[in-house]
Specification:
This protein has 600 residues and is an alpha+beta fold. It has 14 helices and 31 strands. The chain binds guanosine-5'-triphosphate. Promotes mitochondrial protein synthesis. May act as a fidelity factor of the translation reaction, by catalyzing a one-codon backward translocation of tRNAs on improperly translocated ribosomes. Binds to mitochondrial ribosomes in a GTP-dependent manner.
């Protein structure tokens, strides 16, 4: 098949607008899958994806379509819809020349459609607008058409109306793809081999499998190729296309998005976005390599009696298929040895938190999520701190100039009657309004800049709460902004407890401090002596709770008149307590931390 007959495209859609259903229909029409075998949703493969019904990893599937006497090779590249996976998303988009903008006929475009539209548009992809679910009684096609025309500036006449579920009109889509999306003509088949790794996954039998976008040349079994990033050389064991599963092919050529098996056993040897090239030549790397940047961190600590080594091995295996999770050892005075895990965003973190809890249950304590904060020193040095315990106690005026925290641009869409409540919520979360648009479908599209820390504090849950579940949310990393943030530390009889520190904005310190000490108090058993729980921020005590001692009645057996003896005993008891206190011998049972952290 000549390069002119290749088409690489992606489907851009909001969750549940029918991306997977439409993909299945396209695969049926092109004979890749049998319409009678109910193996629906070929593209979503990972277990996490199945459980959550969302796509986390990039996938691709190839189709051959016969049109006007010629064969066309189509690559449908599927990418995560969620912006936590922005790097994966943009890499998938980069391997395509066109995108189907899929909108639900009843719901109209929503937050995720908008965010992904901007990305596709900025990458110069040819857009084909499609209205899906025209079979629904609630479909309001004229209004959705108007919305597509207004918001995306795409002509009404170009819109394809179809029902992915019933299959109606789907057959008109493939000719449209062939006619309007350009082939990947920037590729050179005669040049030395060069490709970008779009995704990688791990098979316990075959080892690492790579999904690659071949930009130049050809590759086949036995080809000797190198990684630009690691300089490792390897011999290709197998090449093929996803049709819909791995189907070996004698040779892959420029313009294809396909898989290769490099014969690597260690997934850590592979970097998504890296350039692969013919070992006999030296080449320029392809653009688009970026290290995944974790934006949400949690601590994970095994409870007493759990085998640390074994758990570490097991966690390592869990993360083999998701290289974007960062994983480091960490030690806490309170909780012992454990790990600090980094995730790309809050959705990513919550997926894994759920998995970890399912898999390890009571054996693993997971601390509250935090974002990476930045410390700006006066000498211009910047330091990123992802563990609140490492955050300075106060602004050391001599060295530190200021702190900053990460922000996102949050795109929200919801029916217009909720606009007041949503703005209130955003303002309460330290947001700043950036844009508002009213759509003919009765929806409002609102953009706010809000701190990532607020976003990961169940912002979506709260947003759904104030809109009776009607809101949708998407967001994009918007860099760091200076912020008045402090470490809030919990002290028990004057000693800090490391695993309980948090970093908070000035405006939230007092309320949180009070709540924190009150809550922690409940988990402490009454001791022989007085226990003082304090919350400290910026060098000051901001909240305090006292747990009174259980007084041992040393006087019980004394006669009422024996005053001097009484005084002596009481004095001795007081001394003893002082001694205990000064030694800081407050016994905090690990269960107290665990119970406290589980409640967060
Ligand atoms: P994610 O994988 O979560 O991103 O969702 P998706 O966009 O892939 O949506 P999916 O294809 O899973 O469809 C979501 C729901 O809409 C399913 O219950 C489909 O059966 C339904 N659906 C898809 N297309 C149509 C359609 O044309 N008409 C009707 N009535 N329902 C449809």
């Amino acid at each position: 098949i000549p390069l002119e007959n290749y088409r690489n495209f992606i489907i851009v859609a909001h969750i549940d607008h029918g991306k997977s259903t439409l993909s299945d229909r396209l695969l049926e029409i092109t004979g890749v899958v049998n319409p009678h075998a109910k193996n629906s949703q070929v593209l979503d493969k990972l277990d996490v994806e199945k459980e959550r019904g969302i796509t986390v990893k990039a996938q691709t599937v190839s189709m051959i379509y016969h049109y006007r006497g010629e064969d066309y090779l189509l690559h449908l590249v599927d990418s995560p819809g969620h912006v936590d996976f922005r790097l994966e998303v943009s890499r998938s988009y980069a391997s395509c020349q066109g995108a189907i903008l899929l909108v639900d006929a009843a719901e109209g475009a929503k937050a995720q459609t908008v965010a992904n539209f901007y990305l596709a548009y900025s990458m110069d992809l040819k857009l084909i607008p499609v209205i899906n679910k025209i079979d629904l009684d609630t479909a309001d096609i004229p209004r959705v058409e108007e919305q597509i025309e207004n918001m995306f500036e795409l002509p009404k006449d170009d819109i394809v109306h179809l029902s992915a579920k019933t299959g109606k009109n789907v057959k008109y889509l493939l000719p449209k793809i062939i006619e309007s999306i350009p082939p990947p003509l920037n590729c050179q088949r005669d040049a030395p081999f060069r490709a970008q790794i779009v995704d990688s996954w791990y098979d316990s039998y075959l080892g690492v499998i790579l999904l690659i976008n071949i930009v130049d040349g050809t590759v086949q079994k036995g080809s000797k190729i190198s990684s630009y990033r690691t300089k490792n050389k390897f011999e290709v064991k197998e090449v093929g296309i996803m049709y819909p599963d791995r189907t070996p092919f004698p040779k892959l050529v420029a313009g294809q998005v396909a898989y290769i098996i490099p014969g690597l056993k260690n997934p850590n040897d592979v970097y998504v976005g890296d350039t692969l090239y013919d070992s006999n030549f030296s080449v320029e790397p392809l653009e688009g390599f970026e290290e995944p940047k974790p934006m949400v961190f949690v601590g994970a600590f095994p409870t007493q009696g759990t085998n640390f080594k074994k758990m570490e091995e097991s966690l390592n295996n869990l993360f083999l298929n998701d290289r974007s999770v960062t994983f480091q050892r960490a030690t806490s005075v309170a909780l012992g040895q454990g790990w600090r895990l980094g995730f790309l965003g809050s959705l990513h973190a919550s997926i894994f938190k759920e998995r970890l809890q399912k898999e390890y249950g009571e054996d693993l304590i997971i601390t509250a999520p935090t974002v990476p904060y930045k410390i700006h020193y006066k000498d211009g040095v910047e330091q990123i701190v992802s563990n609140p315990d490492d955050f300075p106690d106060s602004l050391e005026k001599t060295k530190i100039s200021y702190f900053s925290e990460p922000y996102v641009d949050a795109y929200m869409s919801f029916p217009k009657e909720y606009v007041g409540k949503v703005m209130q919520l955003c303002n309460a979360n330290r947001g700043a309004q950036e844009d508002i648009q009213y759509s003919p479908t009765g929806m409002v599209f609102l953009t706010y800049s809000i701190p990532t820390a607020q976003l990961i504090d169940d912002f979506f849950g709260k947003l759904k709460g104030v809109t009776k579940g009607y809101a949708s949310l998407d967001y994009e990393d918007a860099g760091y902004k200076p912020s008045d943030i402090y470490k809030l530390e919990i002290l028990v009889n004057g000693e800090g407890i490391d695993a309980l520190s948090t970093v908070l904005h000035k405006s939230e310190i007092n309320r949180n401090a009070k709540e924190f000490v009150q809550r922690f108090k409940k988990f402490m058993r009454i001791q022989q002596f007085e226990v003082v729980m304090q919350a400290k921020a910026n060098g000051r005590i901001v909240a305090r709770e006292t747990i009174h001692a259980r007084r041992k009645d040393v006087l019980a057996k004394l006669h009422a008149a024996d005053i001097s003896r009484k005084k002596k005993l009481l004095a001795r008891q007081k001394e003893g307590k002082k001694l205990l206190k000064s030694r800081g011998q407050v016994r905090i049972p690990p269960q107290a931390y665990q119970a406290f952290l589980r409640r967060q």
